[in-house]
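Re: duplicated header lines in exported structure tokens

Our pipeline writes sequence and tokens for each protein into one text file. With two proteins the header for the second block appears twice in some exports. Here is an export where it did not happen, for reference. First protein block:
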Amino acid sequence: MVELSIFLAAIRPQNWRALYDSMSRSSNTNREFEMIFVSPYDLPENMKGLPNVKLIKDFGCPSRCYQLGLLACEGEYVIPAVDDGIFTANSSIDLAFQFLESMSPSKKNMVVFKYNEGLEQIKKLSAKLRRDHAKVRSDPNFWRLGFWFHNPPYTDINCTIAPDDYFLIMSGLMNREFLLELGGFDCQFEHLGIGMVDFSIRVQNAGANTVLGEEFMALTTEWNGEHLPIEQAQSEHDIPLFIQIYSDPASSKRSNIDIDNWKQAEEKWSRRFK
């Protein structure tokens, strides 16, 4: 029986085998897991035949791909991940399961992962800036929504109804049944940046019991032309949509949505595929 499903919206097949192989860095307990890639691209030759790897071919936006990945999961627990990095060598997934075991049993228990986005960019900073960056990210408040709404990059987003003590959940160890009841990810948001802020609010409005875990991925890919559709989606669509939704006081209790909302998203994401 699969215990853990890791799913991702994936556009970098050259990275997939390294990501798969790095799973042992974060979990060395022979845990039964599957890895689900939702992507317009085929599996690399060196991954074909791996029994715990699934590929779902889809040309939709990242949030639609996340939703399809969640729906394909078979594990009791799930982790949304990305394909521009590898798992860190700190047994963070094993530690997350230990956190869950120490909590009172509930399908709403959730371990929020830290992850170090922009590792290559951080390396280029001065020594002082690197220290400051690491210092901020080691502060648990960095992972709170209040920090993100009062500091870059989201200072231009008005979201007074998002409680400051809510975690920013970009990934985590989560119960699959709870996420399905929540409706998963809102595919009105094209990309996962702002979409995961919405997810963070909804999942905690639904009563998630959250604890902060360890860093679980190091993201190493340089930002390049493949990110242009993402930047456009966030600035032209997702941020205005977020402001529109959360300017309504009724959204302060926003939680469960339709699990089939992915069907309303474009089958072929026009920002990336013409």
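Second protein block, exported in the same file:
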Amino acid sequence: MAYLVVQVKGRRPVAPDTSGLPAPPSGDALLQRGDIVTVYPESHTSFGIRVRKKEWIANGRDPADFPGSFGIIHIPDLSLVRAKRLIKERFQNDDPGLGGEVQLMRKWRAVWSEVPANVKNKLRDDGEITLNIGQSKAFIRHKMDESTMDTV
């Protein structure tokens, strides 16, 4: 039983911030749309106001100003052990566009073009959604071979 926190808006350079999320490991230079940023056990309740929209509102902030950079996908039938494997695996990205640097990039992501419109809308509007493994494995894929979560 786990929560996945995914990057919802474009690419963002990794930098210290006050979002309530742990800093990505060194070498994750860019988080891309769909990247799984971190995972939490189902018992986790405090995501921080920049991650969970209802906490943003509870702190007296205007809902229209919610940054919406992250989305929380609650998957009750996904064990925390399996969820952690989604952020543990990395690959070396030696793309020449990175100026010769080799980056360690996450191997698993939510393929944004395959995320159903109703899920995208719920993540955009509420910042979170509950899905089962069957629903989420339709769009969570390995970046290198496009395999599904069945392999995790």
